[in-house]
Known about the structure:
This protein has a single domain, classed as Deoxyribonuclease I, Chain A (4-Layer Sandwich). Helices cover about 20% and strands about 25% of the residues. The protein is built from six helices and 14 strands. Strands 3-4-2-1-14-13 form a six-stranded mixed sheet. Strands 5-6-7-8-12-9 form a six-stranded mixed sheet. A two-stranded antiparallel ribbon has the order 10-11. β6 and β7 form a beta hairpin.
Amino acid sequence: MSFTLATWNINSVRLREPIVLKLLAEKAPDVLCLQECKSPVDLIPLEGMRALGYTHMVARGQKGYNGVAIFSKIPMEDAGDQDFAQLGHARHVAGRLENGVTIQNFYVPAGGDVPNREVNEKFGQKLDYLSDMRDWFRAEPPKKSILVGDLNIAPREDDVWDHKKLLKVVSHTPIEVEKLAETQDAGQWVDITRQDIPEGQLYSWWSYRARDWDAADKGRRLDHVWASKDIAAAGHSSHVLRDARGWEKPSDHAPVFATFDL
Length: 262
């Protein structure tokens, strides 16, 4: 069984329903994982998605904030969720496909603007969230699993537009990169995107603040696709759909794709 998945921080699934449907109609991934849906589950717009064949959904939502959802053409069952750092936020949901693959969809806290937990509670919450993820993966090592989502960290020097300038900017600080590496190592996760695209600048997020985001190209790779070690060799064809950042009323993130032959 071969299937393609995409992960996308949509920044409001209701507001951006038109570009979600555009992605599904034009690129037709078998599975779409969304973050920052900003909607209760019962208000997620489903009619258009179902018409395109996405008849299976697992989701966790809340009004106005956070929210994660997985839509699939392939039969999928709800595989639960975790409340890391006990924030009470809708930031994680898992779905299990009919071939036994579990997809873990995450929206890691952004962490605010100041990279110091003593003066910025949100930064502390981000670090604690990652620590809890790490501990969970150590306690329950993932098998036949894919982890996707907006992890809100660009770990490599070539995952940001200027490594030195961003060392003190939340999303690329050394402590965040270290925490993400601990989390990845705990589950022996393989970064599928960088397995496929091992060298070169690669981004999935561009700020709304830039007058011309494309020309400025001050991006960061915040959105990730990982696979457990036992299935990592099955992943391929990774790419970022950069053009989606320029669609009408866009998210500030672009979708990230990968295909798995399992």
